[in-house]
Amino acid sequence: MARTGRRKRDRLRWSKLYTFSCLRPSVQLETSDTGTASLGGPGFSRVVHCNQPRLHYKKPLKYPTNYISTTKYNIITFLPKAIFEQFRRVANLYFLMAAILSLTPVAPFSAVSMIAPLAFVVGLSMAKEALEDWRRFIQDMKVNSRKVSVHKSEGLFGYKPWQKLRVGDVVKVEKDQFFPADLLLLSSSYEDGICYVETMNLDGETNLKVKRSLEVTLPLDEDEVFKEFRGIIRCEDPNPSLYTFVGNLEYERQVYAIDPTQILLRDSKLRNTQYIYGVVIFTGHDTKVMQNSTDSPSKRSRIERQMDKIIYILFSVLVLISLISSIGFAVNIKYYMHNWWFLQPDDKDNKLYNPKTPAISGLIHLITALILYGYLIPISLYVSIEVVKVVQAMFINQDLQMYDEEAGIPAQARTSNLNEELGQVHTILSDKTGTLTCNQMDFLKCSIAGVSYGVGSSEVEMAAAKHMASHSDLGTSEIEIEPSTPITPVFERVRKSTIKGFSFEDDRLMNGNWTQEPNSGTILMFFRILALCHTAIPELNEETGGFNYEAESPDEGAFLVAAREFGFEFCKRTQSSVFVRERYSPSEGPIEREFKVLNLLEFNSKRKRMSVIVRDESGQILLLCKGADSIIFERLSKNGRTYEVDTTRHLSEYGEAGLRTLALSYRVLEESEYLAWNAEFVKAKTSIGADREAQLERVAELMEKDLILVGATAVEDKLQRGVPQCIDRLAQAGLKIWVLTGDKMETAINIGYACSLLRQGMKQISLSTAPSDPTQQDAKKMFLLTEQAAKENLSLQISNALQMVKLERDPHAAFALIIDGKALTHALHDDLKNRFLELAVECASVICCRVSPKQKALVTRLVKEGVGKTTLAIGDGANDVGMIQEADIGVGISGVEGMQAVMASDFSISQFRFLERLLVVHGHWCYKRIAQMICYFFYKNIAFGLTIFYFEAYAAFSGQSVYDDWYMLLFNVVLTSLPVISLGAFEQDVSSDVCLQFPALYQQGPKNLFFDWYRILGWMGNGLYSSLVLYFLSISIFSSESAFRSDGQTADMAAVGTAMFTCIIWAVNIQIALTMSHFTWIQHLCVWGSIASWYLFLLAYGTASPLISGNAFQILVESLGPAAIYWISTLLIAVVCNLPYLVHISYQRACNPLDHHVIQEIKYYKKDLEDHDMWKRERSKARQKTKIGFTARVEAKIRHLKGRLHKKIPSITIQTVS
């Protein structure tokens, strides 16, 4: 009984209404038809036995299971792949070689001391990789474990996990569930097999798609009937094309063509339909959404890749000095060994000290030297970097400024490998739906009978008003504009409306006041068009007593809510009628009116309009039409253009305000005229042949003409909070922003205006393979004759556009490139892609429309490889996974489209606006911290490591170290590790607030100012200089020829080594203190605590037994401590080592300061508080010149106003509004 009731409720036969979306496929095919003949050939070999999944368990029909995996590793591949990843690092290869060499008897250190650190570092990194991949695995298991109702046998259905689905299974999917695999639609809860599908996860589109089953499978509408169901599907092989499908269904000894309207794709969602039955065609990684995905890549930051080059240089230096050392050792063995009787080995056959074989001695000594000088390439560098990156990731995760209180979701660094890459981004590639927008439409304004209604302001207007009110160029806090452009400081007003989808404010139309307006009849028609021209279904909300609307698009939903608030509530739909409750005044009760629906010509991207033909209660026949203004205006009658001029002006204003607009019109039809047209229409609709759709379009054109313009609507596609401000700040930081969306071009352009990626006056370059005018059918047919013609035409468009851009002389001119998916397919070919990229780079903003997930990834790859700079991709749906993985940095938004994007990302945030702080603050900090940390690390190890080499030369290349083994072990591990970690974790050149106020500081990262070769070689030179000072000053001061204590004692090797090591500790720690800009108690503790820990260690080590301390027994208390020269030399050498760096930074700050130096001076002297004008002036300078964003938009507006004011009035006075 329940089932019967549900079927009764769904007895709407949408095929009676829909004209274009529900075209039946061609009639059944003969087996000799060419379409059938091609199936079974290359690319079309798939055979599916419906309701017989067991036939697909064995070859040749053995297809993949429905199990999916997005992980980088599995149990078998983890060890080899993860080890390969670790030894892609050049330094790790060196340490591996050193560990192997340490097993030889000539190694100066024990094998354990070399192998243990390497195993620790590699093991730690592998464990981190395993943890990150485990999270991906857990998310995959959640998806694979979802349940779906599957036909088991004898007409009985039961639930199975998605991963156990097989090709040929019959499934039943219920409302608001995702499709578990690619399915052939068999029937639905509607009698004629219609269902609605939301494909947001696939292409980002929010409009619902209409799918329709084959007529022959309509009787398969009950569980029991599948007991005997059998059929064979022959179709195309797995491929990534979301919008095409070729196949046939062999059922009941007949063959029927299958096209994309019968295919339901995995990860799309069933909407507005109680249930559907379908048969599985593609499973798992064969599904189209998975075919569009890419393997999880292994990403390395640019700094890490450049660090490999530094390692190559240092390794070359290491080999060079090792060769010098081995040659020196061989020379000494050959010529001087016989004089060193006191060094003769006990073993006369010892090859190391045999004067007769100096070459072998030198070769053996080379191994000793390679290990001894290994401090030039310290393994502790990688440990320190890993620790610092984990701490940086913790700071990102715990940043309250990136915590979404409403959703309770923090930002998350899902991998810490790319922290510094956040500070070097050049291009951002963003999804639109769910990333920039909330996918929530609000009815905000309208134009009726040439009068603009709606005093509320869009987000674009409010932000522009703020900018203009605070703009100093005109010396005014408010700029007066014509009354038709209401951008007064309305940003102070808080919107009163709390109704979802309705933010309209204007008492002239509310509460029945519209009846007092001069053109009340036109207003009545406007409201009726809103309430009648749609395909929505009303659902009674039992809690509120009102209606919720299941609409195909958010726009339709907003129109119906607006109509309800104006007093025209759509309340019921039957197969042939629409019922509207009309209320003309709050004091009167509603009147329910019935409108007979005669025909419905629905909206699609080609028509750009929608019409409905209705008969009202008086018997009058009306055609109600809404659509793009360009389409409606060219179909107006001579008498229907009364309000065209005013409406056009209002549309322009609405567009400038970032609103989505549609024009509304109507036409009164005579009975005879309608009957004649309808006969033609029915004939076209029931025709058989390939030109049926063209015939329908032609007949629709006959009716949709001689229209009378009523007005226009303006709805706001609600951007996510803070998106325009975020884009403006990112643009001022010098970042390029591309939008890649699956939406149609008009929608993307509207969002471009809303985000200020586009603006009035910007020259738009549209690349397309088809004429923009949909009425040019003949031209379109000629144009689409061959793919080659389309490609050649696109090439010509690109060439012309490039020439136009290069010939432009106006410095303020801005270009926007807009390209659709078909044109992009050709533009990404090898022979066109470089020219396309050249054009795109020249444009201020780039918007790619109707792009597939695969194309998103390909565009990202093109930008990444073609521009050669860091790219960041951000999205929130499964359709964004490819570009997120392809980009250098992938950012996932944990929104309403599931967690696929987040699981594939490197960083996740809950809203787009947090990207500003992630890049401009954390990216800037992380880049400078890691860059300075690495440069300093190489400096201190060069300064330390080369002193070992100098002493080697001094000691006849004997392999003797001047330092105690414990000193060398503790140098990187304890005595200098904490300061460098504190530098990498806590350093701030400026505060987070200043980073946001001075976005141009971000450009220090993309320009690589702190890790370019000039800076790297400078630090290496500083290390070389320091090593020379440390060694030669120490040796000269503590020379054996002079006493270093008052009692006449001379320094032995232990004293010289300890004194020299003390100087090194002081020199490198003072150097890092000079490098730091930001001190807290943590930095002070780390720097000065490291120096203090050296003396504490000397005391403790010196008091240990001589069996442990050796020559260092009581060395500080009894030997060095009492000697004044020890303390004086320490101070002297530390100062001389750091003097050049001090001079350099003093000169730079005084004569050639960087941006952050200027800001630091201002903040230090508190000029930002004392001199606001100077602070504001410096802030205005700290913006990269950009042609996108609110700031650029307002500046363009001000230039326009200035021009108009200069033309009209020679001099004007603009009063400041307090």
Automatic annotation (TrEMBL):
Record keywords, A-Z: ATP-binding, Isopeptide bond, Magnesium, Membrane, Metal-binding, Nucleotide-binding, Translocase, Transmembrane, Transmembrane helix, Ubl conjugation
Cofactor(s) of this protein: Mg(2+)
Translocase in keyword set: yes
Residue intervals of the P-type ATPase N-terminal domain: 48-115
Membrane topology note: Multi-pass membrane protein
Regions crossing the membrane: 90-108, 114-131, 310-337, 357-376, 937-957, 969-986, 1013-1033, 1053-1073, 1085-1104, 1124-1143
Endpoints of the signal sequence: none
The family this protein is said to belong to: Belongs to the cation transport ATPase (P-type) (TC 3.A.3) family. Type IV subfamily.
Record-linked NCBIfam families: ATPase-Plipid, ATPase_P-type
Protein's name in the database: Phospholipid-transporting ATPase
